[in-house]
Amino acid sequence: MVSSEPGRCRRGGTPLWQQRICTRADRGCGVGEHSWDSVQLGELVGIKHGWPFKSELFSEELTGRPIVVAVGNFQYTGGFRFDSTNVKEYLGEYPVDYDLLPGDVLLVMTCQTSGGEILGIPARVPNDGRRYLHNQRLGKVVVKQPKRVSLDYLYWLFLWKDFNTELVASSSGTKIVHTAPTRIEAFRFDLPPLPEQRAIARVLGALDDKIELNRRMNRTLEDLARGVFRSWFVDFDPVVKPSKGFAGPCKGLAGSGSPRPSSGGGSVPLASPSAGAAPADLFPKRLVDSPLGPIPEGWRVGTVGEEFNLTMGQSPPGSTYNEDGAGVPFYQGRTDFGFRFPTRRVYCTAPTRFAESGDTLVSVRAPVGDINMADERCAAGRGVAAVRHKSGATSYTYAMMAALREAFDVFNGDGTLFGCIGKSDFDKMQVLVPPPEMVAAFERIAGPWDAQITVNEKEARSLAATRDALLPVLLSGEVRLRNEREAERAVGDVLRSTATSTPPERPARPGAGTVHAGAKGGA
Question: How many Cα atoms within 13 Å fall on the side-chain side of residue 363?
């Protein structure tokens, strides 16, 4: 409930995201005159099945053809993750009814874990100039009564734990669970008036937009750091093209593949030549032969074990694991990896191997070579290694481990063996060894970018915690917003508060327990 004082209830004076103090029946808050109707979802929308596209006509080469949306492309907290999952185009013909439009909302109707944690997860089709196709196992939401319901409001309803709980209860299957359009349409809930729906969607959407803005900024900053690293330590531009004197555009690391459908990233040029300026006096004038090919004169080839401190993870007994926050955060593998930092899910009370804040975390079991960065002291399980350059250069370490992607891929197996890499093989991997002054120079440039990534990510997590705390109380009517003007005031108050405080961490899906992130998905 919001009064004329932004984000506060007339009765209490406490910010709306911190206390649940007003109910729909509370006449003292001035909104009791607006009733909420008990409705069945099917009265308002229809859920349309996708088309069974033929897998033999899928192509991973991105050439501008339509993209087949798959369950694996969904973030398990809502939205798509096209930039970090397998994306496939379709080469064949198909019914035009299964072309998707920007803004269309799709729901996951199949979950590969028995708990059904992602059943009903929604995502909006992006407006990024690409064509997307409505695949099987996904339900498209078709609004039948636009004068009664807002699709933007429904998007948040689909992220409500109550919605997922009902879909799981009515699902079929054991190890893989399924829902269906009729089961989705059977969900009953209390529908607020349209102005209040829009206000709720405005508050939650504004927080989501700010989170995405922060993460787009982080992708840009990471592109900058990787671009400078590639220029200096892969392409050797200051030696090969000394007249340019700067790193050039950030096109990603070698082997990064074709551009992905937009999630806010893309190739990003350096802000200015000076942003990636190469210290010319540190570079030699020519290249010489080496086991890794031509490298700058005076540089050498070494090994990971010689240049980096490497800690291979070890898994304590399963009885020491918990999801209650007891002990230290524990990462068994890349399941909990995020864009840059892992997400706390499992804790351990008897850890045996540790990663320190700033260490690069490398997945050493399939898929080998995925990386993240520890943002706190944590326990490393057997699927993770912690790496840091012996100089302590954290930004250089992270960029170097990313540059070893192709070398790590050798250990991912050919489909008959479980991919993994042991300490001996990891230690023996060859790496370029530039002079210490070059490592320090890179750290001076990339370090501030990485520091800003940390700031942006902490703010994004704080905003996400606030959003997830607000979602259930707004959708249940426990906290009321009467119109979009009150929503605007509430958003401003929330953003100001988030800049100075951090709400407690909550599950990624409000009210949810463990969310099992699957491997990078295809169709």
Answer: 22
